[in-house]
Design goal:
The complex is a heterodimer of chains A (136) and B (115). Chain A has 136 residues and is an alpha+beta fold. Chain A contains two helices and five strands; from the N terminus they run H-E-E-E-E-E-H. The chains are: A alpha+beta (136), B mainly alpha (115).
Chain lengths: 136, 115
């Protein structure tokens, strides 16, 4: 796919995949909000995808790919909770520090971007079909 | 394509509209990529140079970076409402060009049939 010139469907389709990855990371972050672990290393940290533009010289178009997924956000917080079954020998647990408001805002932006790309694809499809029907 | 007397300017116009659709789709696809600079084709300029030369060169010469209304902190210059408006406008104009072409094809077909 990468050695072919980009089509408008590839541009929108790959952007949709990238937004879907972003939606998945948001879902993981929200699902693990407030999850506790017995050490700071094993505690959940917020994950975020890194978007990178993919230029195509042949067609002059540009799509977007997910370069990698990184951990971001603040460190897990230590909380004294000796009755917790996962507490360490000192009675501490580490709670993941997911910013839920930020995740929800991200989710809204992701879903709008996804919808925009779907709209672009539908318009492009109907225009190409109209072009094929030229003269009929 | 420039001196194609059958379709006149509309052949080149359709090509430029098609390319512009791709550029605007790229902008919308990269609406959340940090550092992405939105581009657009100056349709009039592209069409003017397409009528004196090739369409490919005309498009390259008329593609320019968009001046953002309000640049964001991450260096992205895609303004989603501007892009959506331009995309919708371009789609309607593409269909208009198709209608012109269809009209011309019907005209020539009728003339050939001797109706």
């Amino acid at each position: 796919m990468s050695d072919q010139p980009l089509s408008i469907f590839a541009v929108s389709g790959r952007a949709m995949s990238a937004q879907l990855v972003r939606m998945n990371t948001t879902a993981s972050n929200l699902a693990n909000a407030g999850a506790v672990a017995s050490s700071p290393e094993t505690a959940y940290r917020t994950i975020k995808p890194v978007f990178r533009t993919n230029f195509d010289k042949a067609s002059g178009m540009a799509t977007v790919d997910v370069e990698n997924i990184v951990t971001a956000g603040s460190e897990p917080t230590k909380r004294y909770d000796p009755t917790n079954p996962v507490a360490d020998k000192d009675g501490n647990v580490w709670e993941s520090n997911v910013d839920e408001t930020r995740e929800l805002v991200d989710m809204m932006e992701t879903s709008r971007s996804y919808q925009n790309n779907v709209e672009v694809m539908q318009t492009a499809k109907s225009l190409i079909v109209d072009t094929l029907k030229l003269g009929k | 394509m420039a001196d194609n007397s059958l379709f006149g300017i509309h052949g080149a116009a359709l090509e430029v509209r098609g390319q512009r659709m791709g550029i605007l789709a790229s902008n919308i696809a990269n609406s959340s990529t940090p550092g992405f600079k939105a581009k657009d084709i100056d349709f009039q300029k592209a069409l003017r140079s397409a009528s004196s030369g090739g369409v490919d060169g005309a498009i390259t010469g008329a593609t320019m970076y968009r001046v953002p209304l309000q640049p964001s902190l991450d260096g992205n210059t895609v303004d989603l409402s501007t892009e959506q408006t331009a995309f919708a406008e371009n789609a309607v104009q593409y269909q208009t060009t198709l209608a012109f072409l269809n009209g011309r094809i019907n005209e020539v077909t009728r003339a050939l049939r001797g109706e």
